[in-house]
Amino acid sequence: VRAFPLYRYVGPRELAVAARGRSGARIGSRADLVEAHRRLGGRREALVCTYVVDDLGVLRIADRASEHVDCASGGPVLAAGELTIEPDGTISATTNLSTGFCPPASSWAALDHALRATGQALDGWSHAFEFRRCACGARVVVKDDETCPECDRVLPTDWSFERASVQRGRVFLEDACWRVDVIEEASSRGQDRTLALHDPRTGDAGLLVVIADGVGGVGGGREAAESLVDAVGRDRPSTVPAMQACAAVLRGPGQAAFVVARLRSNGSVVGVARGDTLLLAHAGGGWHELTEGQPRSHDARPAPFALAGCDALFACSDGIWKYVDRRVLEAMLDSDDAELPWRLVDAVRTRSGRLYDDVSAVFARRA
Ligand SMILES: [Zn+2]
């Protein structure tokens, strides 16, 4: 899945609430840019406007005086900042200046992807800003001195808004668009591996999902988890025997609990699991635990599962499901609000904000 890091709104809560229902104009072509330049009041001169790349990768623009969170309907974004549009629709300058989302300079990849859809390939930011969150809570644009203007503390050396990594992509299965989130945060263990793979070249490629959670000595579990993810990425199994063959290559001094699942274009899911990872599928209005019958022993043959008519799929390591009540988890997935990926991780933190275990999850649902 071609996925990009997702950023949530970090500005005042009341602005996010007020933003729902608003949004910037969708830009899919050079003609859209020419039209937007005219509509925003540009005449013969270049015009600076607010933009976001929304969570599904669509470029949206609005008047420079408007809030980025309004441009994004209150939702998370892949990129945000300002664009300069020439009267002929050419983009002549780009920045990541958005104090509402504070995106790092690496969000260029998502803007570049969206601009290419309008037929424009640029070399990179005209100007990239660096944002930090200070320990006092202030959102700071880093200038020459590296201290907080509000409290004089020394600012963190790296972008400091989130610990969890959230990536969002979209895939088209037949005519239906699915949103796919990959949510990860390593604890000190660092033994989980995750894969979400869509190969549109083959006929019924669907979506392959793997969660592999290494167990065993230093590095051994990680090596085992990696070997499974590599085998699935290489073989792209579509049947239970092919998935079991992938699991047979698990190697290393350690072992791994895992689930391998393929979501087909028609909404059916087939897969295998062993150990203590979790796969929930939503079908017929409720969640079904497809990994319920999996053997716990790492020597056992992984157990197959299948279910038809799914409209959502949630796979995770035990770093999530062991630390949150199942009904609470299902209610969070049902609500599917803009902050869900981060709320999932926050739900399993200790009081001090750390994690008991690695957190890995893949959440795919019809958009
Ligand atoms: Zn401060």
Describe, in plain words, how this protein is organized in 3D:
This protein has 367 residues and is α+β, with helices and mostly antiparallel strands. The protein is built from 9 helices and 19 strands. The strands form 4 sheets. The chain has a 7-stranded antiparallel β-sheet. Strand 5 and strand 6 (91-94) form a beta hairpin. Helix 5 packs antiparallel against helix 6 (240-248). The longest helix is centred in the middle third of the chain and has 16 residues, at 220-235. It is globular. The mean pLDDT is 92. Bound molecules: zinc ion (ZN). Residues 134, 136, 138, 148, 150-151, 153 line the site of zinc ion (ZN).
Defining key terms:
367 residues; alpha+beta; seven-stranded antiparallel sheet; five-stranded antiparallel sheet; 19 strands; binds zinc ion
Task: Tell me briefly what this model is.
With 367 residues, this protein is of the alpha+beta class. Strand 3 (47-54) and strand 4 (59-62) form a beta hairpin. The chain contains nine helices and 19 strands.
Q: How does the helix and strand content classify structurally?
A: alpha+beta
Q: How would the global form be characterised?
A: globular
Helix content: 10-25%
Number of helices: 9
Strand order of the largest sheet: 1-9-10-19-18-15-16
Task: Please write out the topology.
Layout: E1 3-5, H1 13-19, E2 25-27, H2 30-39, E3 47-54, E4 59-62, H3 68-71, E5 77-85, E6 91-94, H4 108-116, E7 131-133, E8 139-141, E9 165-173, E10 176-185, E11 192-197, E12 207-215, H5 220-235, H6 240-248, E13 255-263, E14 269-274, E15 278-283, E16 286-289, E17 303-307, E18 310-316, H7 318-321, H8 326-335, H9 340-346, E19 359-366
Helix pairs in contact: 5-6
Zinc ion binds near residues 138, 148, 150, 151 and 153.
